[in-house]
Every structure is written in C-alpha cells, then in structure tokens.
Write a structure and sequence with these properties.
The chain is of the alpha+beta class.
Length: 668
C-alpha cells in the first residue's frame, strides 16, 4: 500500500445508479453474493461449480435481492455495507479494466483511492486473462479514513481487471467515495485534460433525446467537459416542441445547439455534428450518441480520460446494453469477418450480468481487440476526422464500421472500453433485413468491401450475397430481393452518386416496397385470412428447428429450388394461407415448404402474408446470378474507383454541399 499523493482527477470514479432502478444494480455492485462472517465452505463449492477461482474461499452465502442492494446506495458515490457483510465492487461499471489501460495507454500503474466511514476492511483483487483471481492487498480501516493502493499493470498483458471488496465487521461500514487515479507525475497528452463536443442525431424520438440531454447535464464533471452538444433533428416531430426541452437547454448552460435538416440518416446527422465540431475548432473530440439511449454519464468521462493517456489518437467506443432488459450486454467487442466481409460479435452474445457477474465469467477477463465500435456511443478525436474525413454518405448501416476501418488504415485503433456504456433499444425484436433497410444492408456492405476487402474479388462476399438472395426468394420475400438488386445496380453505377442518393434513396425504396404484398402488414386479427386445413401440408411442429447440415441442405435445395422455379403460382392469386408460423419458426428451410403462409413479424405486432410467385422467382433468381457474375468481373475496377473517390466523398467540403450549408443556416 502506498501513501503517495493521488492524482488531481480520477481516471474512473466508483459510481452508483442515480435513478431508482433496481434492475441495473448488478452492473454496479456485486449482486451475486452477500456473505457472513466467519467463513466456511459453502461459497467455495458454489464458485467452483460456476467455474472460477476466488481468493477468499468458503464464505457462507446469504442471498439478498437487488432491491435490498439498491437501498444501501447513498447518492451516486456512497454505499452502506451492513455489519458482518461483505460486498464486492468487481462489477462492470466499478471494476477497473487494467489490461486495456496497459495495452493502449502510456500508464504502467494505477492508484486506487478509497474513503470509508466505520470499521472494516478494504480488500484489493486482480484477475488475469483466464479469469483466475488473486488478492493483491488489504487495509484495516476505522472512523473516516482514506487509503491508497499503488497497483502496477505488470500482469495484464492479455487481459485482467482490478477491483476492491469491502468487509464490515462489528458495526455498519460505509463507502464514502472511491476512484482510480493516474500515478503522481503521469501527465495526459498535451499536458491537459481534453474536452468534447457531443453529436446526437434524432428522428422523432424527442422524449428519449430530451432525457439524454438532461442526463448529460446532471453530472457537473461531465457537463464541464462538454464544449457543445449538437442535436441534429432530422424528424417531422421537432424536438424543440417537446416537453422539458427548454429545461434541458437551460441545464446544459448554453452548450446546446439545435440543428434542423433534411433526413439524411445516421451518416448525414453524425457527419453534420463532425462538421460543426471541425468548424468550431474548440473541442479535442466529438462523441457520437444515438438518440434512443440511456447513458451512464460517468462513461463520457472515462472515454475522455482513456483518450487523454492513449499511446496514439484512438477511437474509444462504449458497449451497448438492452434498454428493456438492462443487465444484458449485446456484445463485448465487434469484429469483421473479412473473407465474408460481415460484421458480428467477437464474444458470446447478450451476456446477462444478473445471471453471471464479472468475477464468475472467465471470458470477460480477456482483452478483446475490436475492428470497430457502433455509433450508439463512440468518441472520435478531431485529429482523426481531419485525417480521414467524415462519414461515408450511406444513410444508415456500415457507416460506423467503415469509418473505423478507414481510420485503422491510417494507424488509428478502435477500443471498446469496458465501463463506458449506454442502454439502447435492442434488435432482438427487429428484422430489418426484410424491410426498406434491406437496400442499405446490401449496398453499404458491398461499398465497404470494395473499399477495404483484402481479398481478390471480395473473397466469399459475392457468393454469400447470392446465397442470401436465394434464401429470401425461397422464403417468398420478394421485396427483400428486389431491394438488394437495386443495391447491386447502385454500386455498379459507381461512387459519385452516393451524395445525391442519400437524399432520395429511402423514399424510393419505400415506394418499391408497396409493389410487394408481403410488405403490407396485417395488424388487426379481424383482418387475418382463415387458414386452410390441408392434410398434405407439412406440420410445423415436426420440422427441423436447427440449421441443416451441408449435405442435408444440398439435398433440400435440389428438391425445393426446382419446385419454386417451375411453379405457376402467382402472389396476386391470394391463395388462402396453409399455416401461421411464429417468427422463430419461419426459417429459410421451413417457409419454402408452403405455397402460402402467414408469418408474425419479429416484434410480434403484425403479420406478413407470404405467397409463392413462380414468375418472380425465376426472374429474380436469374438476375441474382447475373449480378454476381458482373460484380465479380468488375470487382477490381470498381474497387479502384471507390478507393480513389473516397477522400473526396468523405471530405468536409463535399459534405457541406450535401448539407446545403451554403444556404441560409437553419441552426440556432
């Protein structure tokens, strides 16, 4: 234990939820165990069963509810530990991700400072990349006392966290405050702490957005680090008319700038925030935030401090939890499979901290190096924007990942920083691969691959596109394929149209959708057509629920592709449905077995009516083969054209024309 002076401001404060929401307590305080003294063997057995090693084996387990834990919180910094109880702060928001700081910053140690009141113990622990946990130090404390621990990053090469536990003995014991500090003499880049402008793109989500603004204003240290908050309103229901907007504006103390512009999607809104930050020339960073989120404000400071000590300019992203299932983390790190050129999580998906906390979950202790971070929360140095430009003008999808890849090509890493996070409306109840967004999924993936794929002709991407087209066609999702075909045409026309296209494409795709009956959702149960009971119809209850193996799939395709190809059925015939499938049942190897089927949508609010159309199937299948052949044939030339045009189409000057900033300003 060290008695040296602590640094001037913390890298990471120990915090607790300020709102009265017991659901999120497991992210701040270890909700898995409260323990009595003296110890015995029950805890060791339980922890061994859960697959991790704990340095204090044998505590007797006394389970308490998250509500009871919540009642022990004292403000946003303090916590009351009942006598003869032990509580751990080895949690998502309060443990210190030491391996990330060792790998990406100039620091080689951290100082833990803990202020307590009462009689008890402070126990400090570390883990390694395999989730093995060891005690590092201990302090006995009495009265109101501050203790410090100097903790080197010696053993955090591949992973590992630091945290502390508190043990109350004969009387109640309270945490007053705690924080993790840079060692004395360690200076941030440039000798000062950086500041930030925040960019929020909103579209008809005024209530969420106003609350987000108020949350950012609610913490003094966060508010003081903000130069400007740019709210780019692209909706038809204006946020300036929302209740409490004036209150949020007042609370931000003149930092809010509202900008109203045409709907140019996420890439247009965030590019406007980047542009304004560049023009103002005040901030060191721009922090991009979605509008439909709730934020832990402390995460803003953590991202800033991490960037302050980074070895080089670094994009620092936050994780995303589920807005409606708040202890579930969607992914701990995002990566790209470059051979297929497809994004995806690099870790188990939707981890639930209420079921398995940080100390119990071995894989959480590895450092995860990412390819990109979503723009639900992403801190970008202004110097990086000057170097690589603004967003690709693609409306939505792949703008965040493409930007990170472009920055990576210039030597700028991306870090998804544990302890910096938002709660976002999840995609669990969505399937945007079948609606108007299907165009942007296909178009933008191809554009990003032409810009960044290291493989000749895009690796396996064109084959994967063909496979997706076939799956949609067999599932009678003809609009999705029509939208994807439009995407292929758009890509083949070259990069120069991207800025013009961003203003009109969404409307064009929505108009295209109206020509396909499966896009006309049935929302009233009164309007649902009657199911025809046919003894020859496959029973969905006996169909395979798991993806078929390669041999089975090949045989299945040999049987079903000809059946659809030579079918004389037409979607306009409105044949009565043979079955009503739940969303989870309507897989690509199940839905094609029917001529007409009802399918509940992902969020459970409506039903789509899928009907086989042999003419459309034949026409679109042939077109898909032709598009694949042409894209592969022209890949090298297309890639050359897109890469040559990239600096211009992402430049602030080009974006200024698209944003019509030569016109009279519409911001205030």
């Amino acid at each position: 234990m060290s008695t040296s002076a602590f640094a001037r401001s913390p890298l990471q404060r120990v915090v607790f939820p300020s709102d009265h929401d017991p659901d999120i307590v497991p992210l701040y305080v270890d909700a898995d165990f409260w323990t009595t003294l003296p110890v015995h063997q029950e805890r060791e057995a339980l922890e061994h069963q859960r697959g991790f090693v704990y340095s204090d084996p044998g505590q007797a387990v006394v389970r308490m509810s998250d509500v009871s834990m919540f009642s022990a919180i004292r403000g946003d910094r303090g916590f009351q530990i009942p006598h003869q109880r032990k509580v751990s702060f080895g949690t998502y928001f309060n443990a210190f991700p030491a391996s990330y700081w060792r790998h990406h910053t100039t620091l080689d140690a951290v100082v833990l400072r803990v202020t307590t009141r009462g009689s008890g113990q402070v126990l400090v622990y570390r883990s390694n990349a395999r989730g093995v946990i060891q005690r590092m130090d201990t302090a006995d404390v009495n009265g109101e006392q501050t203790v410090e621990f100097s903790l080197p990053f010696t053993y955090f090469g591949d992973g590992g966290w630091l945290w502390f536990d508190l043990v109350a003995e004969d009387s109640d014991f309270a945490l007053v405050e705690a924080g993790w500090y840079a060692p004395e003499g360690a200076e941030p880049n440039g000798g000062r702490q950086s500041t930030v402008s925040i960019g929020i793109t909103t579209y008809n989500r005024a209530e969420y957005c106003v609350q987000l603004l108020r949350d950012l204003a609610s913490v003094d240290a966060v508010r003081q680090s903000i130069d400007k908050v740019y709210v780019v309103d692209q909706g038809t229901q204006k946020i300036r008319d929302a209740a409490d907007f004036s209150a949020a504006e007042t609370e931000l103390g003149g930092r809010l700038q509202l900008i109203e512009q045409a709907n140019l999607g996420g890439s247009g809104g965030f590019s406007r925030a980047m542009y304004e930050t560049l023009q103002a020339g005040v901030s060191d960073h721009v922090l991009l935030l979605d509008d439909d989120i709730a934020i832990e404000p402390e995460g803003v400071l953590r991202a800033l401090r991490f960037s302050d000590y980074a070895l080089r300019p670094t994009i620092v992203g936050g994780h995303m939890f589920d807005m409606y299932d708040k202890t579930k983390l969607h992914a701990f790190g995002e990566g790209i499979d470059f051979f297929n050129f497809m994004w995806g999580p690099k870790t188990p998906h939707r981890h639930d901290f209420a079921s398995s906390n940080l100390r119990q979950t071995r894989w959480l202790h590895r450092r995860i190096d990412v390819d990109y971070n979503g723009w639900w929360m992403c801190l970008i140095p202004v110097s990086v924007i000057r170097k690589v430009g603004l967003s690709l003008p693609v409306f939505i999808k792949w703008d965040d990942s493409e930007f990170a890849l472009r920055a990576g090509d210039k030597g700028v890493p991306t870090v998804s920083l544990p302890g910096a996070a938002v709660w976002h409306v999840s995609w669990v109840d969505k399937d945007d691969s079948q609606d108007w967004q299907a165009f942007f999924h296909a178009r933008n993936r191809l554009v990003a691959a032409l810009l960044h794929s290291p493989f000749e002709k895009g690796g396996r991407l064109t084959r994967d596109n063909l496979a997706l087209d076939v799956k949609h066609l067999l599932s009678m999702q003809y609009f999705a394929v029509a939208a994807r075909h439009e995407a292929y045409r758009n890509v083949l026309s070259g990069p120069r149209q991207l800025h013009d296209d961003i203003q009109t494409r969404q409307g064009e795709v929505r108009e295209l959708a109206k020509r396909f009956p499966e896009t006309q959702l049935i929302k009233s149960k009164v309007d649902l057509p009657e199911i025809v009971d046919d003894a020859e119809t496959p029973d969905p209850n006996v169909l395979r629920r798991n993806p078929p193996g390669k041999v089975w799939a090949f045989r299945w395709l040999l049987r079903n592709v000809p059946k659809h190809f030579f079918s004389t059925a037409r979607a306009k015939d409105k044949r009565p449905p043979e079955v009503h499938l739940a969303f989870e049942e309507a897989r690509w190897w199940v839905l094609p077995l029917y001529d007409s089927a009802l399918v509940t949508n992902a969020e459970g609010s409506a039903v789509a009516w899928h009907r086989r159309d042999g003419r459309l199937f034949r026409k679109m299948l042939i077109e898909s083969f032709l598009f694949r052949r042409r894209i592969r044939r022209e890949w090298a030339e297309l890639s050359k054209r897109y890469r040559a045009a990239l600096p211009e189409i992402t430049s602030p000057d080009t974006w200024a024309k698209t944003l019509k900033l030569d016109d009279e300003s519409r911001s205030r």
